[in-house]
Each structure stands twice: as structure tokens, then as C-alpha cells.
Amino acid sequence: MKANLRNALRFSWMYFLYASGAVWWAKRQLARQGGIVVLTFHRVLPENEQARSYSPHGMVVSAKTFEGLARYAAAHYENLQLADGEVTSKTRKKPRLAFTFDDGWLDNAQTAFPIAQKYKIPLTIFICTGHIGKQLSFWPERFMASWRAAEHNETANRELFALLAEARGATAALSANGNAKVDWALDTLKQVSKEDRERLLRKIEGVIGPAGLPAAKDCPDITMSWSDIAVLAQGGVTFGSHSQSHEILPRIPFEEAQRELSESKRAIAEQLKKECRFFSYPNGDSSESVRQLVAQSGYKLAFLNQPGVWMRDTDPLSIPRMNVWEGKLVGPSGKFSHVVFEYTVFWKAYRASKPALCNRAAH
Question: Of 236, 300, 296, 244, which is closest to residue 268 (Cα–Cα)?
């Protein structure tokens, strides 16, 4: 009941701002000053694959919703291609968007690309070179497979939470419900070292047992192969690095972070016969020392995952992006809503960058 009320109030606020002209004003200011709103996607899945995927809910957009967005974006925005480290623009009359994807999932090639191509939406995909052509390769999907299996096994569920609580050193979130509890669990695993996380995952998978884990044929959580990537590159998709293994760079040793950056860059250049100049930070996390490493590795642009607008004077190694998933694109009917999209993307990007925009306008 409370969740329904919160959703009703949330949608009411969005539609009020849209009807009042506030969202239109924000878009106008961004267009006038040449601001670019960069979108981050991860996965675009057909309906028959959504229920079988183990990706967290905040990573997934349905194919129908993505097509609704692409259709609307083609008609109302200038959709930019990242090429040679520059962003080209034909006009500043329309709001400017850039579509980017993180991780390199196979559905980017099979589902997202054909839709984007249909509506002439340029794509940039950041790939993890150590996860090419693998199934359940990223730890969040491995964990979610165990999580769902444990939901049907009381003993396994209890042991799973005991392991998580021990790792976090707290049990406060154990009383949470639904997505809040899942988010707490995933955040717990982000806080620990790679070695500790791997040990914890193996313990959890041991509690579940092989019979409780998904069979390969039933799971759509597969990344692109190098041949898939080559086909998309020939079709006009720009590729960048998302590191080698998706470790959160500020939390690992300097030498390891250096390898993550240099080896992924080298692998992409070797495979695509073209220099890799773009990078997106795993989990969106960076630091001054990591940014220095990114620059030393030869990347020209690097992208975060935090709200904001890419302006002419934005630090090229700290370009903001707006993370997009199903919940930021659909209205009360469950279908794509341009009102919801423009509020959760343009309005929030404008609000996050308002001080900088005001300073630019004053000069």
C-alpha cells in the first residue's frame, strides 16, 4: 500500500513538472548551451528473456521500452556519434543525447543494435575484455542466480544472509524487503575485496549446490564474442574499454588498476585494428589517481555514472552519464513514457548541473 502511494506521488510530481513547463525549460537551457546528456544502458532484453536473466533489475530495459525511447529520441533529440574523441553537432535547437552501453552483453548486438539502427541512433559500447563470449561471467549475475535459488530453500536462504551479514559486519538490512534487500546484498559484495568476494560467492554456491544453479541453456546472460563486436564495429558502433575484469579501480592496487586499463585498451586495438580512446569506469567509480592512470594509458575521454551534463568545459576524464533502466522509462501503464524519461533524465541532469550552467550563462 505504501509503495503504491509513493509511486502515485512520484508520477504526480513528474507530470506536474512537465505540465508546468519546468522540464521544457530545462531542456531549452541545455540545448542553448550545447549540453550533452549521456545515457548509460546495460541490457535490452526481449520479454521472453527477462524472466530468465539474472541481471539486477537496475540494469535491464525491455526491448519494447527501448524501441519506444529510440523512436521518440529520433524525432525529438539530436543523437550524437562519438568519433575520434570529438562530439559533432549539427544544431543546438534540439536537446543532445548520446547512447552508451556498459559491459558488452550479447543482447546489445542481438536486440539493442537492430532497434538503434532502425531509428539511426548511434551507439557506443564499453566492453570488458576479460569477459568476452562468456556466460554468467560477471559476479552480480552469479550472485543473483544463487539468491533466486535460495528463495525456495529456507536453510540456504538463512545461511546466505548469515554469510552476507558476516561480510558486512551488520544485519540491519536483513529486515528489508524486495529490491531493497537485493540492493543491500549487492552493495555488500561491492564493499569487499575481489578475493573475499570470490570466496563468499563460492561459499554461497556451495550452500545452494549444483542442482540449484541455472543450466547454461536456460540463461541468456552471455557477453558478445569478438566476432559479434567486429560486426557491430563495421556497422558503425563505437567501442571503448570498461576495463579488463570490471574491478572497481579505486579499490584495487595501483599496479592492478594499471593492468586493467592498459591490457583492455591493447586488446580492443588489436581486435578492431583501431586505437581505443574511450573508457567508462566500472561501477562509475574513479579517483584522482585513477584518472591520472586513465590519462597515462592514452584514453581521451572517460565516463562516470553520476547525474550531470557534458559541457564544453567538462573534465574529459570525468564526463557524467545518466543511468537508464526500465523504471526510468515507463509510466503508470508500464509503457514507455516520454514524460517519465524527460523528468528522470533531462530534469535531473539539469538540476545536477545547474550551478555550472548558471555560471556559464552569466559569462
Answer: 244
Residues 60-90 as b or e (16 or more Cβ within 10 Å = b): bbbbbbbbbbbbbbeeebbbbbbeeeebeee
Orientation angle between helical segments 154-168 and 139-150, nearest 10 degrees: 140
As separate numbers, helices (DSSP H) first and strands (DSSP E) second, the chain gives 15, 12
Q: Pick the closest to residue 159 from 116, 84, 209, 95 (CA basis).
A: 209
> Helix or strand or coil: residue 87?
strand
DSSP 327: G
Q: Give the residue extent of every domain in the chain.
A: 2-131+236-241+302-362, 139-213
Grid coordinates in use for 103?
559491459
Residue-wise pLDDT tens digits, 295-322: 999 999 999 999 999 998 899 999 999 9
Whole-prediction pTM value?
0.92
pLDDT band (50, 70, 90) for residue 72: very high
At the top level of CATH, the class of 2-131+236-241+302-362 is alpha beta
- 197 HSE (CA, 13 A, CB side): 19
When pLDDT is averaged across residues 117-130 and rounded to a whole number, the result is 98
